[in-house]
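Q: I'm writing up a methods section and want to include an example of the input and output format. Could you take the sequence below and give the corresponding predicted structure tokens, formatted cleanly so I can copy it straight into the document?
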Amino acid sequence: MMWHHDGWGGGGWLLMGLLMLLFWAVVVGAVVWAVRNRGTGHPHTPPPASFAPPGWGARQILDERFARGEISEEEYRQRRGVLEQP
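A: Here is the clean output for your methods example:
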């Protein structure tokens, strides 16, 4: 039997190798894309720093502390006023 004369010949091995590389490149690319985009759109994700108003993170922490009862209403209003000053 002369297998090298049937089918695709030597070029077939080259083509299969290139297709295998393409396949793995797509798989790796999909994994990288999935890892980079995981968590976007989550309702509790804060906006990016460039779009967040100044003091947004501090205001959120202050609101949470007040909601948990860690600080009084008077202290909450005082600290909120400090955060809202320009």
